[in-house]
Amino acid sequence: MQDKEFEYLECEKRYVFFLLMFVGGFLGGFTYSIRGGVFCNAQTANFICMGMAIGNQQWSKALHYFIPMGAYLLGTVLSEALPKPIKKMEIIRWDTLLIGIEMIVIFVLGLVPEAAPFQISQISINVIMSMQYNTFRQARGIPMATTFCTNHVRQVGVYLYKTISHYSDKNNLKRFIVHVGMLIMFMLGVIVSTILCVFMRGKAIWITLIPLGILFTQFLMADLGNEKDFLQLTPRGH
Fold it and tell me: 162-188 pLDDT, tens per residue?
């Protein structure tokens, strides 16, 4: 039985998901605006575009969309394979390491010349977004997605209805507000990305190091401090 103090781990707190949602929106705007017009946060649009390209017998264009899709698949596989050996080491949590990996990848991508092939950014961002989506799943027991909006739109509708029809249950209103907040953070990330990409081009991606740096610091402090004896605990949703 978990100690009451650790009912939720640091990586399950809501501020974590709000910041990651901002990063997801920012990177979505970044890749679509100045890195080839491809959606790297989720793959539905890429599947549609690839299917249309195949239907029109545009094979090279179809391959163009297959590359980020394959990278996204790779990210999922890695995020399933890596946590177990990291947990056995009992030094830091996989969640902490992942944020550190994201920061390194993003820093390097900010150094990539504008004339470099778009696939460098597309593949890298697809991998880290897939790993982020598959790793961070629940915020204080509420199922979450940190890289796209579809689930949050659905949840807003569900809890709007429940808030109106069961107004005495304050949990419905709380969940409604949380999902609305996630959508707002995603849109804020896209807006900031779109504006900064005009002036900073590829180096605009470094802005995401601010929220990621906050998360990495908080996670590392928890791993080495008050959650040191709880490194074997698995976040909910896994």
Answer: 999 987 788 999 999 999 999 999 999
Q: Is residue 7 part of a domain?
A: no
Mean pLDDT (the chain, rounded): 92
The SS3 call for residue 139 is strand
Structural domain count, the chain? 1
Does residue 236 lie within any of the structural domains? no
Q: What is the pTM of this model?
A: 0.92
124: in domain = yes
d(CA 199, CA 178): 32
Helix/strand/coil for 193: helix
The residue ranges of DSSP E strands in 96-228, in sequence order, are: 138-139, 142-143
Cα–Cα distances (Å) from 54 to 71, 72, 123, 138, 210, in that order, read: 20, 20, 21, 37, 40
pLDDT of residue 36: 85
Instruction: Let me know if residue 190 belongs to a domain.
Output: yes
Q: Is the dihedral of CA 148, 13, 102, 143 positive or negative?
A: negative
Domain containing residue 120: 12-230
Please tell me the distance from the alpha carbon of residue 42 to that of residue 2, in angstroms, as a whole number: 34
Q: Is the pLDDT of residue 144 over 90?
A: yes
Distance CA 39, CA 27 (A): 9
What is the average pLDDT across 79-91?
93
